[in-house]
Amino acid sequence: MQYDPIKRSLGKVFNQNPVLRKLFYQLLDWLLLRAWHIRKELRNRRHSSPEIKTILDAGSGFGQYSYRMAKWFPQAEIKAVDIKPEQIEDCNQFMHKAGLSDRVKFELADLTQFQENDKYDLILSVDVMEHIEEDVQVFRNFYTSMKKGGLLLISTPSDQGGSDSHDHDHEEGVHGFIDEHVRDGYNITEIETKLKSVGFSKVIASYSYGIPGKISWKLSMKYPILLLGASKLFFLVLPFYYLIVFPFALVLNFLDLGIKHKSGTGLIVKAWK
After folding, report:
1. Count of other CB atoms within 10 angstroms of residue 209
2. How far is CA 17 from the centre of its chain?
3. Please, what are the domains in the chain?
4. For the chain, which residues score pLDDT lower than 50?
5. Judging by DSSP bridges, how do beta strands 77-82 and 54-58 pair with one another?
6. Residue 249, SS3?
7. What pLDDT shows up at residue 55?
8. 57 close to 66: Cβ distance less than 8 angstroms
9. pTM as predicted
10. What single-letter DSSP state applies at residue 182?
11. Contact (Cβ atoms closer than 8 angstroms) between residue 46 and residue 74
12. What angle do helix axes 3-14 and 223-230 make, rounded to 10 degrees?
């Protein structure tokens, strides 16, 4: 299934004014389990390194993480990069309306070529690496762009079914739920080895989206997106659907956040220079 067209349709609904955009960001924070894990790690980083001054949002998408980090790190300058011109323009316009354009800048960039020597205290990459074939080159660019002691924080699918491709057992001609992915997901040893090979001194990878998270993702994201892909009329039903599903998703996300998973369809990876 092509996931990006659905995301663009949702974005158009909420991009009509800044109030709706902020509501959209809040909904993403609540519904997307990866956002719960990222918030947890960013809170930890804020407490351990409050002096963070420069941040790179590598693959910024709708800009929700850049917006949140601007609030959590009020002294930091944030550069957010993406390969989609329409999202760059849209996010810059929103940040201007939100009064954050002096500290948050969105720019068009290809992560396989992006380097800024020793510049960033923190680099965030959420659901990006599964879309990039030349991942080692991107990791090398991240390492070059970070200051000594800086942290790289990655959220990406694991090889335990993170792209939902395992549902089809790799049948010929059958794709996973998200066709845009170039790999099904990372093995923990694989991504740790790749990051260390470019110079990172310490790497810690852990599973997310365990059993509670997988159930939450299907209820709150997969099934609604499948229905939206089948018919735009489901937009009319969506609010009522979430009135029922939303409380269960919150509980499941909370459980996933508090459990150390032996396996899961997502990975949270931290790497230090």
Report:
1. 27
2. 23
3. 3-272 (3.40.50.150)
4. 1-3, 165-178
5. parallel
6. helix
7. 98
8. yes
9. 0.89
10. S
11. no
12. 90
pLDDT tens readout for residues 153-207? 999 999 997 555 444 444 433 344 445 678 889 999 999 999 999 999 999 999 9
Which residues have a Cβ under 8 Å from the Cβ of 21 and sit 6 or more positions away?
Answer: 14, 15, 94
Can you tell me which residue has the tokens 């918030």? Answer: 39
Beta pairing class for 202-208 and 266-272:
antiparallel
Listed residue (74, 38, 40, 36) closest to 55, CA to CA: 74
Instruction: Report phi then psi at 252, rounded to 5.
Output: -65, -40
Backbone angles phi, psi at 167, to 5 degrees: -60, -25
Using DSSP, state whether 209 is helix, strand or coil: coil
CA distances from 64 to 28, 52, 110, 118, 255 (A): 8, 19, 20, 25, 23
Cα gap 15→4, rounded to integer Å: 16
Nearest CA to 154 among 216, 210, 205? 205
Residue with tokens 């508090």: 258
Q: How many CB atoms lie within 10 A of CB 12?
A: 10
Torsion angle in degrees (nearest 10) through CA of 172, 173, 175, 180: 120
User: Which tokens in the block code for residue 147?
Assistant: 């200051």
- What is residue 94's predicted lDDT score, i.e. its pLDDT? 94
Q: What is the pLDDT of residue 14?
A: 67
**Strand ordering across the sheet containing 77-82:** 104-108, 77-82, 54-58, 120-126, 146-157, 266-272, 202-208
Q: How many Å apart are CA 55 and CA 109, to the nearest integer?
A: 15
